[in-house]
């Protein structure tokens, strides 16, 4: 039995503790569970053979509480294939206190969720080192620079090894095949020893890395791609060396010169050269999959000008604290998030939101760190700095998404875990069968044995998912769209319905004047009177009328004796006239005849507008229509949803008539109106019970329950106000077309993953039997050299196919 102390969050009373105890005791293998409410700790005694920490944490979550866990990510050196990743994951998961561990082959990064009360990052690093891999001393969760440095170091090492292997391997190949070039054969014995010398240099120089990797696996009784390559090339080199040293054992030859045609030094060196070439191209391509994060990190300003006393001083951005006053000049990058206190400018936010038009900023407006100041200078007060800025949160979310795995990868992971042992068995079986076959023999048996070992490629299986996720989510981030990872990509493929909140999502979320109808035809004078009366009002409809007058440069008149009837209307004295402005009931109560205005007002209501009647001294003057206007381009977005085969539903707490009018304007066919905010999640659940796979599009704050209930929650933000943690897909800007792009890119990414996995499986399923010689009766044989070329191509193909997503462009609509 093992004992485990779980720190619990969210308990409020002793009954909370009892609920957690009951839930934990239901888990298989749990002998005792006791929760101390005072210390907020659950003590569990359990059988590690029947349950695991992750299940216990999940049980606490099922009860409605949370276990305090930490997450860390750190680079790992020495990962060469999916089998390496599987071994590291296994080692980490065996550590007491580790809840989950995932290793990304593409980035060579381990991501671990752990209990800080039981294990530390230093313990995790030590476990990985004990498994035969390296962890840089300065490993940090956000060490993208370290990752880049490691990738460059790997490329330099591969480039040197590849140069030696290609030059010497090329010489060995040419000498071994002189007859192909109509060159007179060289003296046999000296030639044989020259081939041996050159091949040995390649085998234990550039090829030494494969032995190192194989030995690490052997120490832990596992095998990986290095094992296959080391065995295969050693078989070809060892066989050829034996022929050279003991020629009398082979075909009755008396010396190495007689058995020259039995030397396969060219096979071993060309295999090493080709595999190194493939690894070099793969590593170079893989380094490009992290371009998005490096680009995001490169947006951060290095310094900032802040007020220190009465002086403006330049300091590193890390020294900027909340509350500091920061000066930004034209052409400079905004260093941190904050609020403008002085000055005006246009700020280019395209690097984060994807929207190319600069946004006007003035006192009271929010600015986002890493955006570019275009025109004027301004001073702002820092609000969020360091890890709390929008940029830091974006980088963190993109890193988390890129470190995840899609459910479709599970089969590939299971196969990769047993792949190498199966290939070794197939290779040994091939060797035995060819030794026993009539007309077989040691030489053909050895060649088929080597070909089977070399052509097998677990790398392609390991790279299929992470490279596509990295490039796809990175490309999305470049366009201001944050996709939370592999599971979101898979659910996006199955979507059938998109539910959209109205206020703030389809509409601007701020009332505006839509139409002005004056009985005397003077709309400007009517607007002037109404805005003058509403000048002191705090009602959103009154504020909309004042904004409209300001936008039209209509001067406001002095007003007095202001009185408001909440929810009904206002009265005020303007130019010695008693002005009334409000709904129909408010004016009728005061004896105003509205008959001349009713037809116009009814037409406004049909369009989803709110009519505000205006009268002076008891006589009707006109009516102003106010509404929350639809965002530009929404109708085109809805049409693109329909082109993707998705049904659309408008979900709103507004009245049915208003909702129907908005739905007609934008092309949504189904409307669910008069829904209270806390009932929106129930409406989403009702759709799901009818068989729909639902994406909910909302503002990420007010719609949080509905976003959580939906299969995919999509939060449409607005720069610094976006709730980045609230959803599966988050739009940093407020352009609704990003929702279509996010869903379409998710589907494209999943399609790429499936293409990669198909290729990886198809390649191995087809290539291994051919390498074993099953088509030999038809005269089709696969030499080890061709097998090496095919194997190298397999990994490069998968990474290159994923990199195509870097060129993704949103669908035209």
Provide a descriptive summary of the structure in words.
There is one protein chain. 48% of the residues lie in helices and 19% in strands. With 813 residues, it is of the alpha+beta class. The strands form 6 sheets. Strands 17-29-28-27-18-25-26 form a 7-stranded mixed beta sheet, sandwiched between helices. A 6-stranded antiparallel beta sheet has the order 9-8-10-16-11-14, with no helix packed on it. Helix 6 (188-204) packs antiparallel against helix 8 (225-245), helix 10 (291-298) packs parallel to helix 15 (458-478) and helix 13 (409-436) packs antiparallel against helix 15. It is elongated. Residues 139-144, 180-184 and 719-723 have low confidence and may be disordered.
Q: How much is the radius of gyration in Å?
A: 35 Å
The main β sheet shows up as:
7 strands, mixed
Q: Spans with pLDDT under 50 lasting ≥5 residues?
A: 139-144, 180-184, 719-723
Rounded to the nearest angstrom, the distance between the terminal CA atoms is 61 Å
> Per DSSP, what share of the residues sits in E-state strands of 2 or more residues?
15-25%
Share of helix, binned: 40-55%
- Give the overall silhouette: elongated
**Quaternary assembly:** single chain
Query: How are the strands of the biggest sheet laid out side by side?
Result: 17-29-28-27-18-25-26
Q: Structural class, judged by helices and strands? A: alpha+beta
Number of strand elements: 29
